[in-house]
Specification:
alpha+beta, Rossmann fold, OB fold (Dihydrolipoamide Acetyltransferase, E2P), 3 domains, six-stranded mixed sheet, five-stranded antiparallel sheet, 20 strands, binds adenosine-5'-triphosphate
Amino acid sequence: MSFLRLTDVTKFYGSTRAVSAMNLSVEKGEFVSLLGPSGCGKTTTLQMIAGFEAVSSGRIELAGKDITNAKANTRGLGIVFQSYALFPHMTVADNVSFGLEMRKMPKAERADRVKQALALVHLEAHATRYPRELSGGQRQRVALARALVIEPPVLLLDEPLSNLDAKLREEMQFELRQIQRKVGTTTVMVTHDQSEAMSISDRVVVMEGGCATQIDHPHRVYEHPSTRFISTFVGKANLLNGRVATCSTGSCNVEVGPLAVQVDEDGFKAGAAVLLSVRPEKLQLVTAGRGRLDGTVQERFFLGSQWLYRIATPAGDLMVLSPNDGRDALDEGNAVGVDWPAHCTRLLPAEEAVAA
Ligand code: ATP
C-alpha cells in the first residue's frame, strides 16, 4: 500500500479550479516532484498535503490513515519553503531546535538531535550563528535541518532551491538528494525547473492546468512524453507535422513532408494527423545524401560541449545538438544530411497536432 495517497483531490478557489481530480500514490522513502509551469496547481497541491489549504473534494491518506480534514499541526509533516522562513533572532541551533521544543522534548535529547541534524547538512560549525550571518545555501540547509529534525513521515519542499544562484543550486540539488537518500524520508517537492525535477526525483508528476498529465520516472517522462506540452517543457523537441499512412502492432508509418518515417509506436488510425517528435541530441548530421533528409545549415550556436544547429529541411526546420569533438564546426550555408535512429522518434496525438 502506498504511504501517501491522493484520491481525486480537487481544489476550487471561488470558481477557479486550481487542482483537478489529482490522483497520486507516493511510496515510503520515495522522492516525488510536482513539476509544471506557473499557475498549474503545484503549490496548491502541496498546501493541501500540508493541511494549509482545505480540499474541495477528494481524499488524502497518510500511512493508511485518512488525514483529509486533519489540522496541519497534527499531521507532523516537515516543510521547507522557498523563503526558508527562519527565525532571524534565533541562532542556527535554536532554529533547528524549535520544533522539538514545541513537542516538549527534554533538553539533553534535543541537543543531541539538533547536533545530528546539523551534521547531516554539514553545518555543525555554524550552530551559534544567526541566519543573517549565513549564505543563501547555508540558510537553505538550516531550513532543511529544521524540517528533518522532527523526523517527519513526509518532507514537503516548495521550490526550496529557487533563491540560489545557478551553480549553488546545482550543488544543492545533489546534496538534497544525498541527504534524502541517507535519511530515507518520503519527500514531495514543488519545482518549475525541469532539470531539477529530473535530476533529483524518483518520479515526476507533470502538471498542466491543474491536472497531472504524466506521472513517471524522469527517464520515461523524457523519452516518452505523453503530451505535446511535456515534450517541449521537459527538454527540447523538434515537432514535425505528419500524417499516419499505416499503423499496426508496435509500428506506424508516417508521412512527414516528402519523408516516410517508421515509428516504433502504435494506437494511431491511418490518415490521422500527428506530430512527430525527435530530441535535438538524437539527430545526427551526416554527409548530404546519406541521411533521412537533406538540409542546409541556417544558424549555429556554440554551447561549449556542444554545437546547436538550425537546419532547414523540406520537412521543416530541425534543431540539432552535436557534440563538440574539437574539430571545425559546420558553417552557415553548408549542405548536410540529417539522420536519426528509428527508436528515437515519438508520435503525439492528432488534436495536439492541430493545436501546434
Ligand atoms: P507557481 O509556480 O507560480 O507558484 P503553481 O503551479 O504553484 O504556480 P498555484 O499557486 O497552485 O500554482 O495556483 C494554481 C491556480 O490557483 C492559479 O490559477 C492561481 O491563480 C490560483 N490560486 C492560487 N492560490 C489562490 C488563492 N489563495 N485564491 C485564489 N486563487 C488562487
